[in-house]
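ok so i was messing around last nite and threw this chain in just to see what happens. nothing serious, just curious
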Amino acid sequence: MTGKSRSSFIDGRVLIVEEQRETGEVICECLRSAGAEIVALVPTFAAALQLLLREPVDAVIFDADQISDSEAILLAEELDTRRMPSLMLNGEPVPAGSPLHEGRAEMLWPFSEVALQEMVRGLVQEARRRLPRPR
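result:
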């Protein structure tokens, strides 16, 4: 890595949606150690959608294994409307027909901290290239 220390590698605002608090905290710590500002760790997609209305966010990371089909449609529509880069963390690949699948990054458990940090850095850079974005 040239020019950036790991502590400023990401340099963006990230929202994490994870119902298992301990898992979410591990993800938060991994991203904080690479310079991400964690906007919030929320347990539900409803909470995430409400937060997106109030806070600027560069990227959303969520556990797609915890989402219902109806929530998937709402979340996909909201993220797409906002042109919000997002990353699904999954135990199994999301089915090809899911509204979340098209154009969304996906990582399967288990993954390394470095792989997660690099993926989120790419999402933040994508968000910055897309500015301005709707609020």
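not much to say yet. DSSP finds four helices and five strands in the chain.
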